[in-house]
Design goal:
Helix content is 27%, strand content 19%. With 270 residues, it is α+β, with helices and mostly antiparallel strands. The protein has 2 domains: 118 residues, Cytidine Deaminase, domain 2 (3-Layer(aba) Sandwich), CATH 3.40.140; 124 residues, endopeptidase fold (from Nostoc punctiforme), CATH 3.90.1720.
Amino acid sequence: MRKNPSVIEYQATITSYLGAAALAAAQADARAKFPEESCGFITDGVYVVCENKSKTPLTDFEITDPRYDAAVLTGRVKAIIHSHPNGPIFPSAHDMTQQLATNVPWAIISLNENVISKTVVWGGNIPTAPILGRPFLHGIFDCYSLIRDVFALGTEGMKAQGIGWPLPPIELAQFPRDDSWWKSEQDLYGDNFKGQGFKIIQRNEARPGDAFLIAVGDSRGNPHKRLNHAGLLVDTNMLLHHLPARNSRREPAGIWARSADIWVRYEAPK
């Protein structure tokens, strides 16, 4: 997959923000602890190795460490890092829930016996990734993440990226989710769009700032037909969206606009 230079620059920014030496130490810890999950945290530019206190360390981690408690009390935890041995590079719904509870960035190191991945970071106060050219990582860079970031950036933030957007900065909620959530009881879009201030509109009413929801892939064969993909209408009849195995992109509305199951428009929640 061809990488966008702006995304490469973003990754360099994250490395600089957390500290290259600290991230390298976290990767070394992940290798040393394999096949169990490693865990630790970054404070004052240093990665602090913690003992994994989980009763199931092959698939989970728990930090019970007075150094961590002290860093939390003084607001010096810059990131929490754990590994996914033989696991995905993206977070689980549980990871996302715990990250929201701590309100600091989290990082995942995915590895197997031979290969260790780059560290993936999300949440907290890290900079927003470029809207276009993002690689797909479920829960971090996916279609809902793109929508949240566009709404958070607002008109001026999107203008800085060369994209017209009519709405001021708006914070949409984060919803922890596992990959392929549409095959389970979870319904990310169907259960939440009204509570976030969106109302259904007719296709012929769609204008920049509106969003489309659609069932794609195996969701169409699902008896629940989850609306598992979404995108945004922006300037000059273009769409922004992010599909699995593709970079986030802007493209003519065309078939997506015509095939959408529903269109929704944001209005401030009452």
